[in-house]
Amino acid sequence: MSELSPIRNLKNLKKDMEHMTYQEKLTHIWTYYKWVLVVVLILIMAVSVLLASIQNKRKITLLGGVTVNVQLSEEGKTYLNDDYKQIIGTGNKRESIVLSHTNIEDIHNTSVYESNYYAVMSLLALCTNQEVDYLILDQTGFEAMLIQKAYLKLEEVYTPEEITAMGEDAVFAQMEGEEAPSAIAIDITDTAFIQANAQVKDKVYFVYVANSIRVDTCRAFYEYLLSYQ
Fold first, then answer.
1. Does residue 186 share a domain with residue 122?
2. Cα(6)–Cα(1) distance, rounded to whole angstroms?
3. In a shared domain, residues 28 and 89
4. Which residues in the chain belong to E strands, given as ranges?
5. What is the pTM of this model?
6. In this structure, is residue 1 part of a structural domain?
7. SS3 state of residue 90
């Protein structure tokens, strides 16, 4: 076979391969058209990224939350998501309340270090990108994210009198770099919502995310959670 020009017109591709085997066709395409394929692939990826970006900009997130090691019933998920959206939404189809779930194991368990690291960093990225406003966590998840300084102090949300009124439900802990413990979580283990919609063997905490841009909405959401009957 005579040597083919690398700039052969693509319309002749079918004619070139009429009498080739399948393997020869693949070799031929890769040899003479690989740069075309690379360019096409790059264009497809660029278009996909652009479309995803446009789609995300069209969304209106009313509130974002993540449960960590706390599995909720379907009724519980509906209560926190669809039901609350009907209360605060305007009817705009682009509006959404995001509720997702992740698992984080004991941070001292070195056998799951890699999967734990990925889970913690993924959650931290969501918090940093202001996609998450609150977390509902068990004790293990609480300790893992405490190290990442992901929590907003309750004093940024409530008055000292309101924090005092929470009594033992206000959870104090010392974040890295802090000189003294601060109130950073609310114990919701014994609330009607958790008792009815979660099977847990440990404490369950509600925390505000430090980077949240919807703190007022989140506070109203917490009151809504407490109103569950």
1. yes
2. 15
3. no
4. 60-68, 95-102, 134-138, 170-173, 182-187, 204-208
5. 0.73
6. no
7. coil
